[in-house]
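ok trying again, last paste got cut off:
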Amino acid sequence: MLQELQGRGIIIHHWDTDGICSTRLILKHLKDKDITNKTPILGNYFLTEEELSKYSENYDYVIVVDMSIPEENILCLAKNAKVFIFDHHLGKVIKKVFHHNPVIKGENPDKYPSTSWIVNDYLGNPLNLYAILGVLGDHEQKIKNNKEFFKIITDFSKENNISFEELLKMVYLLDTNYKMRDKKSVEEAPITLLHFDSPDDILYNKKWNDNYDKINKEIKSILSLKNEEINGIIFKKINTPFNIISTITRKISWDTGKNTLVLNTGFFDDKDQIYMRSKKDATPIIKRGKELGLKCGGKKEVLGAIVPKEKTESFIEEIMNFLNQKEK
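nice, full thing came through this time. structure:
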């Protein structure tokens, strides 16, 4: 279906490894097309009015990758362009466009651990580095708990003489672009990957390694500060200009095994970043956030939100109440 597209196209993708690698796979597939790629303003899980106007009026088709952006954004894009969505996040099926997301259609999320995996399968590609990196980007060490996919990754590593640790390092390097708030480099990354000949091109990229050192220093500094624990929930308030809230939340949650809520007050001037990792199904609190008019999304165990500063305290309280509720 994608190969039949005509005219000018654009891929709107998430800024992390999964979004970058998924975009690289589609660009490779559509190499003969007039197509470009953009990511939203870093930290925004939605498109601004300016972005919507530009993308809906100047392109014949729009491919949204690894992002559950609001339905009203999608319908706006669809007024003048064909819209395709490839994703694995929670949400609802948008029937007026091509929406390929097995997870929201009831399939087991463990079978579809990344958008890169979904895209690669849809395109009919053999197993490759970029399908694998997207999976590791979203799960890191936790993929070892998914026996089916850990075997796939282990076999791939042996066949290609790449260690699991090297694959993880590639993920961390690709993620440095968004963590450094470098939108331009995020958008350049999928195109750069098209021209790489081997994993070493990623592992020894000087710019990404320099970024990696700076980010690791900031992460270690934040993690060295004592966590606050409220009713068994880890709550950490941070103030950093780096886009590392998901990394901080993930590390704390995985290290402690506890529900974790992180608030970053230093990324936006007028808004806060909120990130939650829960052992409970996050669907109800994601739905609640959207009912409140907040920009939020996530997966079964994750919520990410961008909240006006005056609404932060009340939404934090709602999340805490949700985490404290006993499951029925």
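cool. Residues 206-223 form the longest helix (18 residues). The radius of gyration is 19 Å.
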